[in-house]
Amino acid sequence: MNFEKKGKSACEGVAISQGVIYKKDDIIVEKIEILSSNIAKEIERFKIAVKKSVVEIMELKKNLKSKFTKDELEILTAHLVMLNDPMYKKDIEKQMENEKINAEYAVKIVSEKYINLFNKMKNPIYAQRALDIKDISERIILNLFNKELQKDRLDNKIIFAKEILPSQLLKAVDAGVRINGLVLEYGGVTSHVAILAKSLNIPTLMGVEEFNDLEYSYDIVILDSRNGFEKLILKPTDNQIKEYQNLCKIKEEKEKKLKEIEKLESITKDGVKIELKINIGSSKEILEKNANYIDGVGLYRSELMYMESLDFPKESEQLIEYEALNKVIGNKDIVIRTLDTGADKTLPYFQMPQEENPFLGVRGVRYSLRNKEIFKTQIRAILEVSDKNEQIRVMYPMVTNCKEIIEIKKIVEECKSELDKEGIKYNKNIKQGIMVEVPSAALLAEQMSKYVDFFSIGTNDLTQYVLATDRLSESLVDLYDFYEPSVLMLIDSVAKVSKKYNKPLCVCGEVAGDRLACLAFLSMGIKEFSMVNNSIKSIKAFIREVEFYKLENLRKEILNAEKSQDVKNILNEYLKKIEIEL
Questions:
Q1: How many CB atoms lie within 10 A of CB 60?
Q2: HSE-up of 454 (CA within 13 Å, CB side)?
């Protein structure tokens, strides 16, 4: 009998193949008493497992460098830090010594203690730490058991799982496992696993109902993670199999065409130029050959440079990185976002104040205004590199009101005066903009337009703040939805201000690389997008099929919708009407 399960799309696509439930090697960790005379040997066995885990992660980082950005592999760096944490290791060794127990059980007990402690804290940083502890503890235990990845059972399948940890997905990719699709019970669409799946272009559904009623495996299942169609079809009919086999064939043909389209301009069918830029966290993420096919960098996340340093990077160190970025990109737009620390982004050498809700706390420009000298160091470096390319711009995150912009611009003027006195050249008319990611900034866009040269929409944070929904929360995955009409109405209001005052507007965030979202933005008159590099080709191909000046009625329809699903249905119906493959 055919039946379906619903979920949220984390990466769009369709897949048809055998489905298999991923079980974490079915390891049962039992408590075993160890003689006092053998405890030293047991501790040594634990140390060897930790060393093996460190080597594995370092090899993973090295092997996957070409497949993922530095930003995406940052999770592995965090795991290395934790594996080398002396307190964590000492606690496990003490547990073995005091309780006279085996290494596996000691790792389990101590790790569970840390996980429970972190989960009790409201701070989302600690929720991520809990996941990291879970990840590294499972790796250590696997190495103590000498368990290997079950490659044959997972290869060329659609994988069902309650959850998959980032390192488990990376390990499978490194082992050459071909994953046709992912269906997960837990995890949000902005989680690290979702980001990795998108980077690998693996069709992924998250927040799917419980797997208790699922069989161990299925001969054939269908995964449809296209926005508006999200479902897992178990025991499909012959007609459904035929329909989706045809969709997969069309997808393969499209992939071949995309290689040629990459070299073409991103121009709509009626001749409107749409700027397609990339989001990056390091100059090393982009090759010169790729730079030829993009319109610049729409979002340079400078916090990654800070997160990888042993201390706040000096002006000279920042200048080297910005110059390297400019050299690769050439004479094109480069938007450098100033340090965006706080909430889920922490600096290893700087202790942020403990806050009840750090997503509503000291982050973005709030941090910069409270740490003026750190901010000035970065602004000076950005100003210096601006002399080499007039299209380098600076952008401020997490702006809430006009007062903050005025204060920030005063500091920038101070930096300009200092450079003038020192005889250092810079672009005196450097463009300054803000990220619209707080509802107040969207509502005040008209007033803010007096003080800024451009706007960028940060869709991830704007969605979470408009909907009062933590984007990292697994239990609220059904509420966190960019397609909610309230979110789109706010973005449309900013688009109107952008047109009225001739202030360029760019959309950043995960949804910028999503075809349905792109269509919604185009209907609002938005002509600039910044996304992950591997989304550029498909969005460029999509843009070349759309007529920009015929989208006004579509805009009215989606803004009058009541529910996110209504919005998706309207957008999909429009694509069907103009004969663009869904």
A1: 18
A2: 25
- For the chain, counts of helices (H) and of strands (E): 23, 16
Catalytic residue positions, numbered:
192, 508
User: Measured between alpha carbons, how far is 442 from 459 in angstroms, rounded to an integer?
Assistant: 12
Rounded to whole angstroms, the Cα distance separating 550 from 573 reads: 15
User: Do 135 and 57 contact (CB within 8 A), yes or no?
Assistant: no
Confidence label for 187 from pLDDT (cuts 50, 70 and 90): confident
Q: Express as a percent the part of the chain with pLDDT over 90.
A: 51
Q: Does an H or E element contain 141, and which?
A: helix 124-145
Higher pLDDT, 382 or 510: 382
Domains of the chain: 3-25+149-256 (3.50.30.10), 36-145 (1.10.274.10), 272-554 (3.20.20.60)
pLDDT at 176: 83
What's the CA gap between 64 and 173, in Å, rounded? Answer: 8
Distances (CA, A) of 513 to 117, 270, 532: 37, 21, 7
Secondary structure (3-state) at 270 = coil
Average pLDDT, the chain: 88
Reported residue count of the chain is 582
Distance between CA atoms of residues 279 and 494, nearest Å: 21
Cβ contact 396:411 at 8 Å: no
Q: What is the DSSP string of 207-260?
A: SPPPSTTS-SEEEEEEEE-STTT-EEEES--HHHHHHHHHHHHHHHHHHHHHHH
Residue whose pair of structure tokens reads 């290893």 in the numeric block: 348
